[in-house]
Amino acid sequence: MVCPLCKTGKPPNEFPTATVTEDCHHAPLACLRCVVKHAKENGTCTNRNCDARVDPNSKIVQLFQAKLDRMFVDYRKVMKQRAQLLRPQGNVISVSTINGDTEWIPFHVSMRIDDIKDEIHQRLHLPKEQQRLLYNDTNLKPDMTLSDYNIGCNDNISLILPLYCIPEHLDHVIFDLSWEFPSVNPDFLDATCMAFDKTSFVQVIDWNHPANRYYLRNSIKHSEKSFTGPGAKTGHQTIHVYLKHVPHSITHLYFILSSWRSPNLSAFKNPSLKFYEASNDNANLCETTFTHALNSQAVIMCSVVRTGMKWQIFECSTGSLVGGNAKRYNPIRARIEELIRNEI
Fold first, then answer.
1. CATH classification code of 164-343
2. CB atoms within 10 A of CB 284
3. What's CA 41's distance to the chain center, in Å?
4. Are strands 310-315 and 162-166 parallel, antiparallel or unpaired?
5. What is the pLDDT of residues 80-90, one digit of tens each?
């Protein structure tokens, strides 16, 4: 189904089954997101030929919003609410990891971000260079203070940790992205790698562009197809990375899964990422799954970031759900550029 407002193809569960008011005498053709947005911004129905007024605080609008919230979970809100429920007494700020683990640190408005990293190091024994702190999607710089970012008492800071710090001796590594095929309407997922020089896009590697000699010196290669056997229920594509041959100008590699024809990933079960050394494919160096992404068109699985002479793998939790696919990379590219700007 295609929404007439946002012009986007979406599955039936993203459309309302009833009109937004009893005064509407037409089919509910617009998607839930457009109906709610239109009601809150304009107080009217999305149908141009309908004169019905819509109360943005009505029960039906709240019901539509609740359905959207269930399908597209904002994990930053979840972590913030969890931190507030468990917060001890006194002036503190909370620091939460993606799995919900939370530490409370005494709050002083003049505290530097580096001071918070010191506290985290003392409590969790995590090296400061492996800590990435985010507030409202903005990367916090060590020499800045809490007041510089308008961080107040009882606010929550996200702690992003690397999935894996790649040892310097490793060269040929493999990212194996897999999924379970839909039971009906056969389709497949596409694994993509995007290379960036800071915020500047350099090159995409996917099934249609399996390698690049000019910009990437053939340091990243795509398997070009999905590896499956007769009657296979699981598909996967691999991307080979020769780290020592990646040009020094490349600072970020982002790995993405997107559907080829389906409007989102909901038909594919258990999309996952495995990372291993080419010489030992039985020993996973890190692994993660992304079942929270099934209502999105695409998911940014992870980023590989150059820090000096080393590479670190980060799970992309904040901002990882995005529109676009292998036929339309612009929304994915724009989101990644935003993520890198916030990081820098």
1. 2.60.60.30
2. 14
3. 27
4. antiparallel
5. 665 565 656 67
Q: Which tokens belong to 279?
A: 């010489």
Q: Domain boundaries in the chain?
A: 12-71, 75-160, 164-343
Q: Write out pLDDT tens, residues 305-332.
A: 998 788 988 877 656 778 888 888 999 9
Buried b (16+ CB within 10 A) or exposed e, 240-279: bbbbeebeeebbbbbbbbbbeebbbbbbbeebbbbbbbee
72: phi then psi, degrees, rounded to nearest 5? -125, 85
Q: Is 118 helix (H, G, I), strand (E, B) or coil?
A: helix
31 Cβ neighbours under 8 A, 6+ residues apart: 3, 5, 6, 8, 10, 14, 15
Task: Look at the domain 75-160 and name its fold.
Answer: Ubiquitin-like (UB roll) (3.10.20)
Copy the structure tokens of residue 216: 């990437």
How many residues are present in the chain?
A: 344
Amino acid at 215: Y
DSSP-based three-state secondary structure for 20? coil
Q: DSSP states of 235-302 as a string?
A: EEEEEEEEGGGS-TT--EEEEEEEESSSSSSTTSEEEEEEEEETT-TTSEEEEEE-GGGTTSSEEEEE
In the block, tokens 């609008």 appear at 61
